[in-house]
Amino acid sequence: LPIKDLNKINQTQEESSEQVQQRVSKARQIQIERSECANSQLSNTHIKEHCRLDKKDAALLESAIEKLGLSARAYQRILKVARTIADLENQTQINTKIISEAISYRRLDRAAV
């Protein structure tokens, strides 16, 4: 590839602070409308209702929990983070990409300790 084409590939459009703020506000609104609270405050019942995973993604999360030696509480935190990522991406379902991202944040959190 010519250099000019490589430069085009490497250029990414970054969101402005205003765009990020709008996405966060919209995600927060979705959360409040769905369960009358932020995802961080979801009860066990709400987690089961709003953070459903298909079999493949549930197996992925369970495998990560085992490999990382995480608790049931960490499992719930990962689901809440995944639900928030989905809300930020305006997705109704938590998919493999989203659950993987949430797991990676948990791994980073543990590495920092």
Can you put this structure into words, describing what you see?
The protein starts with a helix and ends with a helix. The protein is globular. The protein is built from six helices and no strands. The chain has a domain at 40-113: Helicase, Ruva Protein, domain 3. With 113 residues, the protein is an all-alpha fold. Helix 4 (55-68) runs parallel beside helix 6 and helix 5 crosses helix 6 (96-112). 73% of the residues lie in helices and 0% in strands. The protein has helices at residues 3-10, 17-35, 44-50, 55-68, 72-88, 96-112. The longest helix is centred in the N-terminal third of the chain and has 19 residues, at 17-35.
How would you sum up this structure in a few lines?
With 113 residues, the chain is mostly helical. It contains six helices and no strands.
Strand runs, count: 0
Structure class: mainly alpha
What does the main sheet amount to? none
Using the 3D structure, state the CATH architecture of the domain at 40-113: Orthogonal Bundle
Uncertain residue ranges: none
Number of H/I helices: 6
Let me know the average pLDDT: 90
Element pattern in H and E: HHHHHH
| Oligomerization state | single chain
| Large-scale geometry | globular
CATH class of the domain at 40-113: Mainly Alpha
End-to-end C-alpha gap: 43 Å
Q: What is the CATH T-level topology of the domain at 40-113? A: Helicase, Ruva Protein, domain 3
Domain Mg chelatase-related protein C-terminal: 14-106
Pfam families: Mg_chelatase_C (PF13335)
Protein name: AAA+ ATPase superfamily protein YifB/ComM, associated with DNA recombination
